[in-house]
Amino acid sequence: VALRSLFCWSRIGYRNWRWLALWWRHFILLWSTIDGQTRYTIPEELKQGSVVGNLAKDLGLGLSEIFDRKLRVASEAGKQYFNVDAGKGELVVNERIDRDTLCRQSASCVLPLQVVIENPLQLHRIEVEIRDINDNSPNFLTKDRVLKMAELTAVGARFPLESAEDPDVGSNSLKSYILSKDECFSVKVKDIEGGRKIPELVLEKPLDREKKAVHELLLTALDGGTPARSGTSQITVTVLDNNDNNPVFQKAVYKVRVNENSEKGTSLIKLEATDSDEGVNGEIEYSFGEHTLESVLSVFDIDAVTGEMFLRGELDYEVAASYRIDITAVDKGSPEMEGHCRVQVEVIDVNDNAPEIVLTSKPSPVREDAPSGTVVALISGRDLDSGNNGKVTLQLTNGHPFSLKPSFSNNYALVTSGVLDRESSSEYNIEITATDAAFPPLTTKKTIPVSVIDVNDNPPKFSQSSYNVYLKENGLPGSMLSSVSASDLDFGDNAKISYSILDFKVQDVSVSSYVYINSDNGSIYSMHSYDYEKLKGFQILVQAKDHGSPSLSSNATVHVFILDQNDNAPAVIYPSAALGSLPHQKMPRSTKAGYLVTKVTAVDADSGHNAWISYRLAEATDTSLFSVNLYTGEVRTKRAVSEQDDSSQRLLIEIQDDGEPVQSSTVTLAILVEDGLHEPILDLRQKVPEPSKKSGRITLYLILSLASVSVLSMVTFIILAVKCVRNSRSSGSCCMRRDDFDGDMMSQSQSFRSCLSPMSEFSDFTFVKPSSTTDFKEMINVLDASLPDSAWTFESQQVSGEL
Ligand SMILES: *[C@@H]1O[C@H](CO)[C@@H](O)[C@H](O)[C@H]1NC(C)=O
Ligand SMILES: *[C@@H]1O[C@H](CO)[C@@H](O)[C@H](O)[C@H]1NC(C)=O
Q1: DSSP secondary structure string, 258-300?
Q2: pTM: predicted TM-score of the whole model, two decimal places
Q3: Topologically, how does it sit relative to the membrane (predicted)?
């Protein structure tokens, strides 16, 4: 029991000590009683009956004594491991002895035995040392062990492993561990207090889950026995993923070419990065680099999940011909890892920009007399595209006196190339076409207005080269005669006109005393009242002058025709009242009907109708006896004079002109009917003066004149007659018809002029003396009266009121 308790104690260190102390006390006690000590050494695990030693011999006892003295062996441990073979005196093994159970890990295992011999009682103490044999293999309690290890675990890190148990001691006990071959791991043995060895797994190389996610290790524990025994444990190291891998793009730089006119949403490229990590550590998000410019962000877009790049905005080669875009791929691990690449986007120019026409200098107005080649404006062509798409040529549309003169690159000068005339074209809209060299080309048109500056190159021009003005005589001074007007094709001052009258003489009087002109508008005013009978017309030379510098002028003639007014009453020439008494005519009582008593002759200073005289018998003593020829003024008897008729007859003859108003005068004739008188004697004969040398000359002159006038009249009459016949055939009218004279004064005058102009002044005689009777004496008198310098008086009477 004591021994058993001793062994029990030995399980724990300090109790072992106490056991040893107790044991040694016994031993010293025994030693004092028994001289010497017998010790046997046997290996453990001997078979029952195996001989440990010859106890009788060693104790010096005879065989008989063994039996007699009742030799027995008492085990202190309580368990009877040994017996004494009484026949042979040998100590034999009674029971299996397991040293490892008996002594645990003690280095020596000694079983103390007491040998008791009675008669006399003797106590002997023997020891049996049990030697360890290598009967146990090292053993791991856990056969399979799983270790989880972070991928980023530092090299050199140690992981304690379970140590193997080997109950054997000494050299048979656990001696070493070995690890199956793995480049990342090794095993080291750590000795701890109590001589125990703890294996530790040491990380020799960084783990890489991506290379090897699981390491299968076999740990073998070996003891020191011969042969050595071993035990194994399977160790599975699972490498936990660490986010230690960047997402990696296949290329560092991707190149993309894209047309600048590509539409929004066009896919440019699909980027792909890979990440060897697993789970979220390998989940990639794509984005633009951190410092990407806004100008890039506004144009490009990237799908964070698929990595596809799109056009978000519009490309413009002219704004940016290429882009370098940094792309980042980020995984979702912690910490996150990034990968980078660059996308080079090359924008391909498309001819999307029309050429531009730029005026480098504003077009300046050009003088109409500018010589060919005068620079009007500087123009340049521009195109934002590149290459041929940006090559610009400028062209002019034809039909302008302008051309384009190329100067250095794309610059042109717009120059005049012909004669300019502001009056025909004061402004040119020059259309310029710019075309680029692309296919198909783009064109732009621009209109450049060029104004032409006026030069005084046009003289004023009168509306008529000559003006005819018909002016009634006796007009009020200061009344407006006429208006001339001139126009000037030029502009501004060059077209501003002043009118003036060029001075020259009319009847030795300066024309400026006849008329004056409003210099602003060309209205001409008379300064006099004109007398047709003194002045039948005159000419004015009017000048229009512009205000240009130098100024230009032109002339026009104004013909002023003074129109006759019926301002003169007919004047009686015969019978003349010059004698102061009543004119007397005598005629015989034997006069038959149709006898020409006398002929009244009158003239009118006016002309035309105003001078067209008619005669009428206004009053008579006996109206049945006399008649007056309306046109000739001949006074004739209507019947034969009888005895009953008064010898003194008195006639009042009224002479009227055809003017408006009618002017008239009267003459009273006293006719004496004489009984014995046979031949009428004209009173006129008494009046005829002696023919002087002067009158003889005039007579000759008049005869010649009349002759030539008559011939001319005949010719004219024939021509007119022919004309009239023709005209009357076509228009049914003839200028000579009496009815035509019913118009106003002006048309009458024109009629006279056109039909009778060759007769001129003498034409008036035709009307003055329509009579077929030609009496030269009368003619002379009439002529005298119509000559301007002849001084003569006549009785005139305004009778229009009475009529
Ligand atoms: C010219 O001017 C005057 C004065 O202003 C005016 O009486 C006259 O009628 C004008 N003449 C014309 C043709 O306008
Ligand atoms: C106008 O008449 C004046 C005077 O006769 C003359 O000197 C001038 O040359 C004439 N002008 C024109 C344009 O005919």
Answers
A1: EETTPPTT-EEEE--EE--S-GGGG-EEEEE-TT--HHHHTTE
A2: 0.46
A3: Single-pass type I membrane protein
